[in-house]
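Researcher: Next entry: Nudix hydrolase 20, chloroplastic-like (Hirondellea gigas).
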Amino acid sequence: MVVTNGPVSSPVAAASFRGEFHDPMMDVCMSFGSSLDSIGDHFFKERDSSSTRRDSIDGVGGMGSSPSPLLQLLWKANSFLMQGLQSKSGGSCTPLLVGQRQVGILRPEVRLILTRYPSVFTFTDSSVVLNTQLKDYDSRTKAVAEVLQDIRASGETVALRSWRGENFVVWGQYGSEPLFEVERSAVVLLGIRTFGVHITGYVSNAEGGVTGVWLQKRAENKPTYPGMMDTMVGGGLTAGLKASEVLYKEAAEEASIPSQLVDRAQSAGTVSFFAETERGLHANTEYVFEIELPPSFEPQNSDGEVQGFVFVEVKDIMDYLLDSNYKLTSTPILIDFLIRHGVVSSYNVPDLPEMTEMLHCPLTQLYRCWPVFPCLPTQPTIPNNNCLMHQFLPSCTTTTTATLVDSRNESLIQELSPRKQSFTASEAVEQQRNQPMTAERGNESYVRDESDQEDSDVA
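Model: Predicted structure:
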């Protein structure tokens, strides 16, 4: 294996640089069927051997009626969503609330652990609520930190074994309503939404077309996804930092990109996804930036978190993206980049519309009205074997008839019941939108109305 703090340019060295490391956390869907590697290999072998790799990218649309390998990869990155918001370990998940704001999602085993801390959490049939006596940011932060330290000492959760010693903000309303801070490694344990920044560095030809992108190889001592391939630069929004600040900070630390080059970074919006791994639930929203780099520029790491970098030509990009050694939660960023620059398009991917949807999971809405979600069954799951998705994600709980449930909206359901025995998701959502939302903000409470600003995912 080539280990370097500089670029890897030769095809042979680049292949070795990817390595054979396989992280079990990548196996986020039970019985996923054929691996993405074998799907990609099958396609490339089926192509005419005389065709170029750029021609081969036409095959990312899959074969026949099968979903494309890229769509299957995005299903994997959204495994919790595809499972009908049910944990693959079995049982329904429970919302974690601060006041009436949902801030997290607890898998059954995590809820059971938290019952040991009745002074911090209050339990109902439908939710877990942070003790209302914890009325401000600091008291909530301190109480939750003590719980997490105790759980960490027990060694019973995978997530807290990768303790980071840095905090993320837990938001009621992103950007304007901070509720408390939590240890970074615990956000997946508690199903708390996270926000980050990714920078794709690329090189263009004289005609403006993308010729290749820079990727990083994560250091072997990283607490998560060690040794795996990743976006050139990426970092979480730790407490006290804005996306624009993380942009410059991570660009300097991870790739030694001078500020005058970072000044040229183009914002390309966000991507969001909802995955379940062994560590927990990843409800991620990532700010996406891209920088066109001079052909002579070579990134260099300065913080010890990156082994090295490799420049990958467009014709070879699928070899990396479909490899199990590419960090799962970074695959949506690269796919989004390839779509934005026309490398992946409707000309070569028939299921492009669904792929695009999978890049923008509606996390704000899911957390605002959990679990008001049209695909979530109220009765024991009856798999719909006619669902193509079910063939590739056997843990998918899509059903032939979709009903709606929200135990926190029992009064709404009872109100509707006398008029009709069944109701649609759109009717329930509309009814809920008309209800005022009361939430704590510091030591006060307020009623959210139509004049309140919507959650923003824009820097």
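Model: Note for the record: Residues 212 and 313 are 4 Å apart (CA to CA).
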